[in-house]
Amino acid sequence: MKPQILIVGAGPTGLVMAYNLARHNISFRIIDRNEGPGQASRAMAILPRTLEFYQQFGFADEVIDRGIKMEDVYVRVKNKIKAKVHLGSLGEGLSPFPFVLTFPQDDHERFLLEKLKNLGIEVEWKTELLSLAEHGEGIKTLLKAQQEETAYFKYICGCDGAHSTVRKQMNIEFKGEKYKQHFYVMDVHGSGEVMKNQKISISFSNEEFLICMPVRSKGTYRMIGIIPSALLDQNDIKAENIQTFLQQTFGAEIENINWFSTYNIHHRVASRFRQGRIFLSGDAAHIHSPAGGQGMNTGIGDAINLSWKLAAVLQRKAALSILDTYEEERLPFAELLVNTTDRAFKRMVARDKTSQFFRKHIFPPVLSFLFRFPYPRHKAFTILSQIRIKYRNSNLSSGQGTNVQSGDRLPYVEGNFESLQSLNWQIHVYGTAAQKLKKSMREKGFSLHEFSWNPYMKKAGLQKDALYVIRPDGYIGFISSEQRIELLYQYLNTHKILPFTNE
Fold first, then answer.
1. Closest of 202, 221, 200 to residue 79, by C-alpha
2. Which of 74, 83, 243, 298 would suit a FRET pair with 468, their CA atoms being 20 to 30 Å apart?
3. pLDDT digit string (tens) for 386-434?
4. For 279-301, what is each residue's pLDDT tens digit?
5. Name one GO molecular function term (predicted).
């Protein structure tokens, strides 16, 4: 079958895009200019919402087995613990995965490549996009591997990173700025208080900032921090310089350095995520600070959101207009990250006296106090985990609920996420579904899942006997409190929604 989509870039975003398209039997090519998958650990954190997506794919447990669960965060000031946060208690009952997982990006990419290979999909390495242009009802591209090739596709997904060729070819503005500070990242073997008990450690001294977390095998740690002021004038900062600084400032005894790099951090968001038949996802569309591990996970969320919509349109299972909802759903969240997480990170790493006072004397005690109470704990988890992402203003969200609204992620209650592995539209009723509704959905080919009502459902915000239309990505598309079938049909007909398969 002739490829309908070109995916440019085989990092986590492009690989997840490819996997979901393959699961929906969409033909595509995926190219990357590099010789093979990355060799460095780079992005580390896999957040609960990403694990929920991987549960839909059927391989969340495999990922968890290969990674390290991070259930605790310690905040240290001048090597003394000032706050402890247990992540497991933060997300208890909110997600089947109430923790952060560390899984090095190179291992992560190889895992996804393995899954694609099982589906008969191979990345075309050492292949780059030279040019692209709208051509009738598709895109004309010029690709280069060993030789140049002209190829035509219906859609292009630019997942090719911060220096995206796709974005530059389309002249899409990449708004934002660079942080003033220069940063280092290193993977090490060592010991010391900041490398103890397989915890995430956030440490502050007067001007300095350090994040330390375990990676891979026991005794290997990722360290991220600001290059000390005293070293900024050096043209070539070496790992040994940082090693000495870490020992003197944070008591870190580093025995072996596996990887070291210095870099600048930007926060930027593309002015558009879509231009005609061309889409941007992941770092090609937005880049963020490393705070909270939001960047890579946001890219994976982009890939999930776009891939099922492309599949639905190409299979004529939804109206062409649903592609408009990709940008209207994903761009606002990328901008929200800049205004929240990135802004907070800027405050945490600033070297002025006010910021120093805040992170040493205000942040730890306030964190300890707030996290004694259930509401702040749960609120923090929804933000960190990305389960708070909502699409309430999307044209694909309709109908009124009580606490839970259309456009929200389907709240987790025991047993209700298993059916999402179909990657298909489905109907949920928490309570009793009317026989007329059951018969109607059976005739239309939509699966209907009826869950016996219990108090946990009310606590999760679900409404007894309401009808919920669940999208293939696990978000609520439509709600009817009274199971009104005519309104359900109106929603389905407006967007020309058909199930991917007759279940």
1. 202
2. 298
3. 999 999 999 999 998 889 999 999 999 999 999 999 999 999 999 999 9
4. 999 999 999 887 667 889 999 99
5. pentachlorophenol monooxygenase activity
Q: Are 261 and 184 in contact (CB under 8 A)?
A: yes
Beta-carbon contacts of residue 369 (< 8 Å; ≥ 6 apart):
none
Q: Give yes or no for a contact between 37 and 110, defined as CB atoms under 8 angstroms apart.
A: yes
Please tell me the distance from the alpha carbon of residue 225 to that of residue 202, in angstroms, as a whole number.
10
Distances (CA, A) of 46 to 18, 53, 60, 121, 204: 19, 11, 11, 24, 24
146 and 32 fall within a common domain: yes
DSSP letters along 141-168, please? Answer: EEEESSSEEEEEESEEEE---TT-HHHH
| Domain identity same for 408 and 274 | no
| Integer CA distances (angstroms), 195 to 103, 225, 228, in order | 17, 15, 20
Residue 413 in tokens: 């209650």
Residue 276 and residue 410 share a domain: no
Take residue 349 and report the two structure tokens written for it: 């790493």
Residues in CB range of 295: below 8 A, 6 or more apart: 43, 283, 286, 287, 288, 289
Residue 66, C-beta contacts closer than 8 angstroms, at least 6 positions apart: 103, 107, 111
State yes or no: pLDDT of 502 exceeds 50. no
What's the one-letter identity of residue 416? N
Q: How far is CA 78 from CA 71, 81, 196, 392, 473, in A?
A: 23, 9, 16, 44, 44
Task: Provide the token pair at 8.
Answer: 């440019």
In terms of domains, do 46 and 143 share one?
A: yes
Domain that holds residue 438: 390-503
Q: Name the pTM for this structure.
A: 0.94
Pairwise CA distance, residues 381 & 385, whole Å: 6
406 and 321 within one domain:
no
Phi/psi class of residue 163: alpha, beta or left (left: φ > 0; alpha: ψ in -120 to 50)? alpha
